[in-house]
């Protein structure tokens, strides 16, 4: 039986976040905090929340996304990872399992460098360690530079969010999901439509696209690079699992395998044959099995 999902608005790090909660009110094991990617939202975790009924699960709409507050600033990775730390505190979570995907995965890596003591385990789904990814882009490793062509377009102020909030733009956003599935017809298209339809106005996308802009700005300035290097110099000290849909065409699995060296600790590699980038939308049963395996060892 699918778990009931409840919704609340919580104040953390000075702004309000929409948080969906499901699962056992009391559980012997740790809670799960889900952090989504782009262009998603809490709903991308709903198939997992409905399957992991024995665990207490929390899925948040990140800063700037529909459902949560959309402040004008705070889209740098330092503030965004502070958001996660504040949410753990506000929600009263005692060392949850942090489960992350895509942009949420980038935040997960950086969060674990900064705040390993706040979580019991990190799970990253189809997101290369940011330091590994940036190096691959700069050095043209396995054509990674050409695999993410939208990043330069996103740097143009106001244009990207204005375009992708139009009917044509939302159609292209939908294609970013469907064209990246590993098995044709496997993706939950109704859920994809639900995610895409949230972006009706330019303001709905300004924050999410600002994640890319702020990351480029951080890397472009010496002070930003130095601050990020200082974060990476602190090793991740919690067990880390990297789950990877091997049919991901945007992020190279060959590059992703090098993430362990930059994490500063062991990273367990869990490849999923025939699955694309959006693992949870395409293969929720497989992903639920992977997360159940993680939970079984931390309970």
Write the SSE topology:
Elements: E1 5-12, E2 15-22, E3 32-35, H1 46-51, E4 57-60, H2 77-90, E5 97-101, H3 103-115, E6 121-125, H4 130-139, H5 144-147, H6 150-154, H7 159-164, H8 167-178, H9 189-196, H10 202-220, H11 222-232, E7 240-245, H12 253-256, H13 259-263, E8 267-272, H14 279-282, H15 284-298
Parallel strand pairs: 3-4, 3-5, 5-6, 6-7, 7-8
Antiparallel strand pairs: 1-2, 2-4
Describe this protein with a few key phrases.
Rossmann fold; 299 residues; alpha/beta; eight-stranded mixed beta sheet
Give an account of the 3D structure.
By secondary structure, the chain is an alpha/beta fold. It has an eight-stranded mixed β-sheet with strand order 1-2-4-3-5-6-7-8, sandwiched between helices. The protein is built from 15 helices and eight strands. The model has no long low-confidence stretch (mean pLDDT 95). Helix content is 45%, strand content 15%. The chain is globular and about 50 Å long. It has a single domain, classed as Rossmann fold, CATH 3.40.50.1820.
Number of domains: 1
What top-tier CATH class fits best?
Alpha Beta
How does the major sheet shape up? 8 strands, mixed
The helix-strand sequence is EEEHEHEHEHHHHHHHHEHHEHH
What is the chains' assembly state?
single chain
Considering the protein shown, what is the CATH homologous superfamily?
A: Alpha/Beta hydrolase fold, catalytic domain
- Helix segment tally: 15
What fold name stands as the CATH topology?
Rossmann fold
Tell me the CATH architecture. 3-Layer(aba) Sandwich
Global morphology:
globular
The rounded distance between the terminal residues' Cα atoms is 22 Å
Structural class: alpha/beta
Query: How are strands sequenced across the largest beta sheet?
Result: 1-2-4-3-5-6-7-8
SS strand fraction: 15-25%
* Rg estimate, integer Å: 18 Å
What is the helical fraction, as a range of percent? Answer: 40-55%
Number of strands: 8
